Fold this protein.
Amino acid sequence: MKLLDQFNRPLRDLRISVTDRCNFRCPYCMPAEIFGERYQFLPKPQLLTFEEIARLTRIIVRLGAVKVRLTGGEPLLRQDIEELVAMLDSVDGVEDLAMTTNAYLLPAKIDALKAAGLKRLTISFDSLDDEVFRVMNGGRSGLKKVLAGLEAAEAAGYSPLKINAVVQRGVNDHTLVDLARFFRNRGHILRFIEYMDVGNKNGWQMKQVLPSADVVEIINAEMPLEPVPGNYFGEVARRYRYADGSGEIGLISSVTQPFCGSCTRMRLSPEGRIFTCLFAVEGVSLRDPLRSGATDDELEAIIRATWGDRNDRYSEIRSSLTQELRERRKKVEMYHIGG
Ligand code: SAM
Ligand code: SF4
Ligand code: SF4
């Protein structure tokens, strides 16, 4: 029987966060003043093993998921991540296997990832201005390292890449046209993401959000755009193509044009909790029953019940919440469950 949530949304995508650690400190995600030297990340025994992740993936795929994405934290920090890629690639029913990364470690890892069966890559890349780029990753990397990662991905045949750029008003909004031109010329799909109030640690304020409609206007003024109809149910990015046929961009507008109605994503955290929304407060532990000897059928029943109860639509109600109510809601952090 088809698994549907309270709003009839099927389960189609599984996002697996393989670590809560990161080598960057993007202020919109893991501000350095909070995630300092002494910050306690999850100890290794608490992380799901690759075998545990593969087992849960098999069950979640049975329930309808066809797309799997590895994320984090920074997924390339998880030791031998290519072994997990190979294990997931051999799960029957996984039609798409992708990863989102900041690309810093890609040159060393790309061949192993490709050989293991990774199909698609998304690289996060917020600006081509070295100074702005550094500000947006908390001073952990200049452009050069990440460009090397991008080139390694291209050389391994990952094309087109998806490129994620978080847009923050007053931080990188003056560098968007350059970014668009650069990725258009390289044949990749740049997606502008509205800065979101994920978690409670980034100090998000509405005035820091540049609405996607403004981004379209800025790009369109330099390189004319026309809208493209969506590809499939559950696609989060609104697409525009360059009128001269030279490629396309996407807009992920969680703040100004929420897409909860077609949200088909389940998230698995590094310590084995499932979350049914990026802005969730609570997750449901699969690791505890799994490590206490639950059978596949018992785990499946928990996942079914969790998805069946799902009624999340945070982005649609965000604007009705006061700043105080938003701040009081103890949401899970982005670095913990991935984008
Ligand atoms: N470390 C990897 C990376 O940065 O690509 C994967 C994990 S990261 C949490 C996934 C995506 O979430 C990245 O593209 C990042 O830019 C985006 N992201 C993080 N915090 C965000 C926020 N507050 N608003 C919008 N996007 C955010
Ligand atoms: Fe790390 Fe990615 Fe978060 Fe930046 S967005 S701090 S790279 S997890
Ligand atoms: Fe999906 Fe939650 Fe985002 Fe809505 S707010 S699109 S339900 S993750």
